Amino acid sequence: MPKPDRKLSTRIRNIIYHNRDLPWFSLGTPLFFLSFLYRIGIQLRAHSYQKGWLKNHRLPCIVISIGNLTVGGTGKTPMTIYLANLCQRLGYRTVIVCRGYKGSASEQGGIVSNGQTIRMNYADAGDEPVMIAYQLGDIPVVIGRSRYKAGCLAISRFTPDVIILDDGFQHLSLARDINIILLDYARPFGNTHLLPRGPLREPVQALKRADICIFTRCDSKLSTDHDKVRQKINFLRGRRPLFKTVHIPMIRGIIPAGTISPAGLPFTDVKIETENIAVYGFCGLANNADFRITLKRLGYQTVGFSEFPDHYAYTDRDIRTIKAAVIASGAKLIVTSDKDYTRLDPEITWPTNLVVIGVEIKSKGNDSLFDDYIKRRLVALKSEIA
């Protein structure tokens, strides 16, 4: 099987994530025509669900979907974790349902966590469901390419009051009661083009389906005309709730040098400084540049960095290369993301302490506005179902 052309994929990625205009005779032109065909297909699909030509299934509980319009990270997973904890605090039995992207069990579905025991690793379930399961602990996580079948499994095993769909905005075959869409504050619509010319999964008009819109990373220094964005959102959705959040970076765990990595996201008693410490970073995320920014916000001095594609499965050779680069750079610490950590072999030992970095999502401004809104909606929905 031929290996993918990394240079070509890098060129395409640069086109998708940049706003600059491209000359007619360039790679952007065939990508533009492909995005036109993609637009036709995606709009026909959405119209078919709207008209009832394609069947939409409903579960006998409250369903909340969290998603976005663009490929790449807008904070869906931190928002899923935040919302699950909120629903549980409000007294609702909650289950997370994910696709299980790149997991071997995604097609048939299954239980990643029953709220007590983690039953799958990232090879089975994909990295994000496993990371969610470790962070939530006592909230079950179920995967399945068919969210409806996964939801039925969740109901039969856990009888939840609320099911939260992680990355469910485009999964139109399952009805939802609250549709939450996340937009990156710095680049809400990317370069305004659909895949593969740009990062949009759907036309901006799909915002009409959203009940709640949330700007994420509102501490970004990148500029965009948010008044125009807000006007467009209000025009498409009516004056429905619009919230702002920020991402708070944090150290989730530290693996001491020379020790075998435990499962999950461990906290240890190792004390470290962050300010101006030389670190070597590596990650395979939707937007690796954001992780670099996170390291800068934490005060680290990055002396080397290795980037990989999103959901990348690290090989022994990759790890040997990273270790050699760490030693050559003179870094005092190695840093990676919590999502990447779930994809690492637990038998790896590192030449210096490995610091696992994550983010938490937090409301910008009045913390209670979003929580109070969700509380009111859940009370109303529960009375309707009853």
3D structure, described in words:
With 386 residues, the chain is α/β, with parallel strands linked by helices. The protein has two domains: 62-240, Rossmann fold (3-Layer(aba) Sandwich), CATH 3.40.50; 247-361, Rossmann fold, CATH 3.40.50. The protein has eleven helices and twelve strands. Strands 3-4-2-5-1-6-7-8-12-11-9-10 form a twelve-stranded mixed β-sheet, sandwiched between helices. Strand 7 (212-216), helix 7 and strand 8 form a beta-alpha-beta unit. Helix 3 (76-89) packs parallel to helix 5 (127-136).
Structural class: alpha/beta
Overall average pLDDT: 89
Radius of gyration (CA) equals 21 Å
Assign the CATH topology of the largest domain: Rossmann fold
Uncertain parts: none
Concise summary:
With 386 residues, the chain is an alpha/beta fold.
Write the layout of secondary structure elements.
Blueprint: H1 6-16, H2 28-51, E1 62-68, H3 76-89, E2 94-98, E3 110-113, H4 122-125, H5 127-136, E4 141-143, H6 147-158, E5 162-166, E6 178-184, E7 212-216, H7 226-237, E8 242-255, E9 278-283, H8 288-297, E10 301-307, H9 316-329, E11 333-337, H10 338-341, E12 354-363, H11 368-385
Parallel strand pairs: 1-5, 1-6, 2-4, 2-5, 6-7, 7-8, 9-10, 9-11, 11-12
Antiparallel strand pairs: 3-4, 8-12
